[in-house]
Structure formats: structure tokens, C-alpha cells
Design goal:
Elements: H1 23-37, H2 41-54, H3 59-71, H4 75-85, H5 91-113, H6 122-145, H7 150-181, H8 184-203, H9 212-229, H10 232-248, H11 258-283, H12 287-308, H13 311-333, H14 347-365, H15 368-378, H16 404-431, H17 435-447, H18 451-469, H19 477-492, H20 494-503, H21 505-513, H22 531-542, H23 548-553, H24 558-574, H25 578-586
Helix pairs in contact: 1-2, 2-3, 3-4, 4-5, 5-6, 6-7, 8-9, 8-12, 9-11, 10-11, 11-12, 12-25, 13-14, 13-18, 14-17, 15-16, 16-18, 16-24, 17-18
């Protein structure tokens, strides 16, 4: 716990036996000290300033003025005076000036952090730590002038421990915030990126000779690797919660079957074992074995990611990574000179890393067509247009709300987004199989450091990904506003909308086609039924039923399109498709690992 540092003032009086011309300055300084000790800092400052006029630039009087200003709540005015006193020939005056400068920096940091430094923002953290490091510099200057200054040494150690403790606490708090705020695919992506950073840090040390600096680097990387391994229980919690939600289909979540929990624990345990093996290898300086274990940990995380990531997330990540690959290739095939040794880059190393990135894109794009086909199977068939000659009975006409004119723009936008999403899925089915051969060829050329040969297939793969992503409906602010407007309309007229949704046969037919049909409630009897209900009863009495083909080809109402699109977005966010995919992944056969 951080202990506040107390301002130690060194109010200096002149030595006895000075010449008579300076006796008035001595008297003023002594009077100022008396006022200072009585807490009258303004009066003390006035005495010291009058003394300073009689004995200009005396560092002891400057020090006394600075102490009065600091104690009187004017630290910014005191700092320049302490800095001028710090260059005094008297080592004691110089040491105490540095000490008080350090204390003023600590006091500013304390005021910035407040009573709860743990909840400080990232900007406040950085600014406060910078002030503490500034205080550390002043305390060290104090110890250089006066090595036996116990208070400066004690405060220096207190700041070091406080910064170390708070940085660890902030890091854990940020990790917890990341776990809580990120959904499962984003969380897995963050873990993969962190694992890849640790691998690059370990790989960078393979050519270094043994030294204390190398051992320090390996120790820090191993510690970060163990911290990443500590995330595995939290990853399991997110996986269990996602699986339970997917299996419940909207009902209250129930515990997973025991066999599924065991399989999941086995997978998570394997991933954690890879990370622990990497940390052990780093501590024992077996760097190559550690890097191989880190690769295995990344692949295990990627298997989980591929099992749960929805198609838009997977497509966006593949596109982003492929852009980086193409950008790197273009920088190597351009007329610009290659990077020098000063930047730490080398062509073989860059080619190997870029090839690794392309191999990862290859893993992700291979599942795009299958995932898109599964998405298309869950969407309703595209609506068909009808000609003016075809009959359209009044009793089968979809019922529209009274404020159709006000909501026509919203309905058109929702219908357009659904059409764009269907187009994106069709593009993924059509163009997706063409991408893996391109990424594979590009990776093979990159592994041979053949940058020019890798450029055409990499650019073509990027073009295909961009063409697929071009049809992705944007999640814009307009979508959020549409949902808010829809919710407000429901709040204003809940009964009328419920009645229309319950009484309309077309609504019931479309609800029976959706995945949420098992949650439909029985219709309560109404004293006054609309004409459409009467028509339905007449059809039942006469034994006539609407033609099934007409129900399938009947265009959906704008309200049905909006409701379907909203359910589609919710299903994407909840990743309800992950159950089948994750079960297949959990129960597949495991390859035998190499025995080291």
C-alpha cells in the first residue's frame, strides 16, 4: 500500500557573527521562520522576500521562500525557487531542494490519482506514473549529493513498490474488463494476438548470445506466457456459457452434459499445457522448443475460434490480415530500398513471418463456403414478385399498420440489408473455394522468399475477399435508430400490435417458418374479432384452406422483414450456430503429439 510522503522543510537562518549590514536580513529570516512554524505561511513568505532583497540570490533564502509557497498551497510557484536552490554549493541545501522537488511531484501524482487509483483511466495512469518517475529522478539527485539521506532512499523504494503493485493491478483489471466486454470470438482473437506477440518475442532471442540481458528478456516473456495460461479458466467459462446459450434456444440455460464438459476441459487443458511448456522452455533457455509450444498453443486457440466465430467476423478478420500480407509484399517488390539493419528487419525473417500470416488466412478462408451454405439454409427463401393478373384475395392480404408512410424508409432499409446479407452469403459460396489455392501458392512462394511470385496470388485472394465483403450489410447507427424507433412504437401501442400479430394468418404462417416457432403462445379469445378472423373461420367451416404454394410465394411484409433481420442479428451475436460446429470439433480424433 502506498504511504504518503511528508514535506520536509529545511528553514535556514544565518550563522551568528555576520557583519552588521546583514543583521536585518538575519532578523527577517528568523521572524519568517517563527511565522512559518506558527502556520502563518503568507506572513513568513513576506519576511523571506524582504530578506531576499537584502541578500539577493542567496540559495538558503530562496529555499525558505519555496518552502513557504509550497506550504501555503502554491507548489507551482515554489518549484522554480527549489530548482534555483538545488544548484547551491552547500550540499545540504542542494540535497533538500532535490528532495522537496521529488515530494512536490509525488503530491501532484497523489492528487491526480485521488482516493481510488485503481479505477483511474489510462490517461490518468500514464500521467501519474510519469510524475512519480519524475520524483524518482529528484530523489536520485538528492542521493547523489547526500548519499546518507534516509528519507529520499525510503521514498525511492516506496515509489518503486507502489508502481510495480499498481501496474500489476491495472493489468489484471484491464484483463477482467476485456473478458467481460468482449464476446467469445473477439476474446479468442485477443488471446491469439497476445500469443503471437509472445512467440515473436521469443523468436527474436534465438540469435542472441547468453547474457544477463537475454536471461531477463526470457524471464519476462515466460512470466507473460504464464499470465496468458491463467486466462484458460476464464476462456472455459465463456465457452460453457456460449454453449449453454446455444443449446437452450432461448430457454433458461441448463448445465452442459457431462461428456461435453469433459471434452471441453480436455481441450482447454491441452491449450494451457502448451503455454506452460513454452514458459518452462523459456526459463531453461530452450527457445526453439518454447517457440514450437507457442505455435501449438496458437493453433489450439485458432481451432476454438474457427468453431465459434460467425461468418461476418471470420470474413472481416481474413480480409484485414490479407491486406497486411499484400501491403508487406508490395513494400518488398517496390523500387524502394529494403530495410536496413538499423530497423531490425531482414528479408528472410519478414518472408517467414508473412508466410505465417498467409497460412493463417488460408485456414480461415477454407471454412467460408461451408459456413455460408449453413447460413443460407437458415434464411427464408427469397421473396418472389407477382404479376398484376394473378389473383390476390382480400382475406389473404397482409395487414399493414396505420403509420406505414412514416415507417416505409425503415422497412425498406431493413429489407435492403437482408438482401445484401443474402448476396454476401451467395458470393461466399461462389467465390470462397477459389481463395484457398491462391493463399496456399502465395504462402509457398513467401516461404522461399520469392516476393514477386507471391504478389499475384495474394492480390487475387484479396480481390475475392473484398468482393465477398462488398455485400456485407453495415451495422450503422441507422440500424440502432431503427431498433429504438421500433421499440418506442411497441411501447406506445403494445395492445394493438399484439392483436394484429396474433390475429393475422399471414403472420402466423411466417412465424411457423422461423426458428422461434416453438415459443409461440396460444391466441386468447377476443370479444370482437376482425374481418380477417371471420374469413378464416368461414374457410374452416367450408373446408377450404389457402393454397400452400401461395403461402410460400406470398411476399413478406416489411414488418416481417424487419423482425427477421433483427432475429438474424441476435442469432449472430449469440452464435447459436456454434453448437454443432463445436461438438464436431470437440469429438474429433486427436493427432498424436511428438514426444520430446
Amino acid at each position: 500500500m502506498y504511504h504518503p510522503l511528508i514535506l520536509v522543510t529545511m528553514l535556514l537562518a544565518f550563522l551568528p557573527g555576520v557583519v552588521s549590514g546583514k543583521e536585518s536580513a538575519t532578523r527577517l529570516v528568523r521572524e519568517g521562520i517563527t511565522r512559518y512554524q506558527q502556520g502563518e505561511y503568507t506572513a513568513a513568505l513576506e519576511k523571506f522576500q524582504r530578506a531576499e532583497k537584502l541578500k539577493v540570490e542567496d540559495p538558503r533564502i530562496l529555499f525558505d521562500q519555496a518552502c513557504a509557497l509550497a506550504a501555503g498551497g502554491k507548489p507551482d510557484e515554489a518549484i522554480p525557487l527549489f530548482q534555483r536552490a538545488a544548484v547551491a554549493r552547500d550540499p545540504h541545501v542542494a540535497a533538500e531542494s532535490h528532495y522537496n522537488l521529488g515530494h512536490l511531484s509525488v503530491a501532484k501524482a497523489q492528487a491526480m490519482f485521488g482516493q481510488e487509483p485503481l479505477v483511474a483511466s489510462s490517461e490518468t495512469r500514464q500521467a501519474g506514473v510519469d510524475l512519480l518517475l519524475q520524483a524518482v529522478s529528484h530523489y536520485r539527485d538528492c542521493l547523489e549529493v547526500e548519499p546518507g539521506h534516509a528519507a529520499a532512499r525510503r521514498n525511492l523504494e516506496a515509489i518503486r513498490l507502489w508502481i510495480k503493485h499498481m501496474q500489476a493491478a491495472w493489468k489484471e483489471l484491464d484483463r477482467q474488463k476485456r473478458r467481460d466486454e468482449a464476446d467469445l470470438p473477439d476474446y479468442l482473437q485477443q488471446l491469439q494476438e497476445e500469443q503471437e506477440n509472445l512467440r515473436q518475442q521469443a523468436q527474436a532471442t534465438t540469435e542472441e548470445l547468453d547474457s544477463p540481458l537475454l536471461r531477463q528478456k526470457l524471464w519476462e516473456t515466460a512470466r507473460a506466457q504464464r499470465q496468458l495460461a491463467a486466462e484458460m479458466p476464464h476462456l472455459r467459462e465463456k465457452l460453457v456459457a456460449a454453449l449453454a446459450t446455444a443449446m437452450s434456444n432461448g430457454a433458461p440455460a441448463e448445465p452442459l452434459p457431462e461428456d461435453m464438459q469433459k471434452a471441453l476441459d480436455h481441450r482447454i487443458g491441452q491449450t494451457g499445457d502448451h503455454m506452460q511448456r513454452a514458459a518452462d522452455g523459456l526459463n531453461s533457455q530452450e527457445i526453439l522448443l518454447a517457440v514450437e509450444a507457442q505455435d501449438a498453443a496458437w493453433r489450439a486457440l485458432d481451432d476454438l475460434y474457427l468453431a465459434v466465430a460467425p461468418l461476418p467476423h471470420l470474413l472481416e478478420r481474413s480480409l484485414e490480415q490479407q491486406k497486411k500480407v499484400v501491403s508487406t509484399i508490395k513494400s518488398r517488390t517496390s523500387d524502394e530500398p529494403p530495410a536496413t539493419a538499423d530497423t531490425g528487419d531482414s528479408l528472410p525473417g519478414d518472408a517467414e513471418q508473412t508466410a505465417r500470416q498467409e497460412r493463417r488466412v488460408d485456414r480461415w478462408v477454407r471454412v467460408l463456403p461451408e459456413r455460408a451454405e449453413a447460413e443460407l439454409a437458415q434464411l427464408p427463401p427469397a421473396e418472389t414478385t407477382t404479376t398484376g393478373d394473378e389473383p390476390h384475395p382480400l382475406d389473404e392480404a397482409p395487414e399493414l399498420p396505420a403509420d406505414t408512410s412514416a415507417s416505409s424508409g425503415v422497412d425498406a432499409s431493413a429489407e435492403e440489408q437482408l438482401a445484401q446479407y443474402r448476396q454476401m452469403l451467395n458470393k461466399a459460396v461462389e467465390l470462397g473455394p477459389q481463395i484457398p489455392p491462391l493463399t496456399q501458392h502465395a504462402a509457398e512462394h513467401l516461404e522461399q522468399s520469392d516476393w514477386p511470385a507471391a504478389q499475384p496470388p495474394a492480390e487475387e485472394a484479396l480481390r475475392l475477399l473484398e468482393e465477398i465483403a462488398k455485400s456485407t450489410p453495415p451495422e450503422s447507427q441507422q440500424d440502432q435508430q431503427q431498433q429504438q424507433d421500433s421499440q418506442q412504437d411497441q411501447d406506445q401501442q403494445p395492445q394493438s400490435e399484439n392483436d394484429s400479430s396474433e390475429d393475422s394468418p399471414s403472420e402466423q404462417n411466417n412465424e411457423s417458418q422461423s426458428e422461434d416457432s416453438d415459443k409461440a403462445q396460444p391466441k386468447p379469445e377476443e370479444p370482437n374479432e376482425p374481418d380477417e378472423s371471420k374469413s378464416q373461420e368461414q374457410e374452416k367451416e367450408s373446408g377450404k384452406q389457402p393454397d400452400a404454394s401461395e403461402q410460400e410465394n406470398r411476399p413478406m411484409t416489411p414488418q416481417q422483414v424487419e423482425a427477421l433481420l433483427q432475429r438474424l442479428r441476435e442469432r449472430e451475436r449469440e452464435h447459436r450456430r456454434q453448437r454443432k460446429q463445436l461438438e464436431q470439433w470437440l469429438y474429433r480424433r486427436e493427432p498424436v503429439e511428438r514426444d520430446w
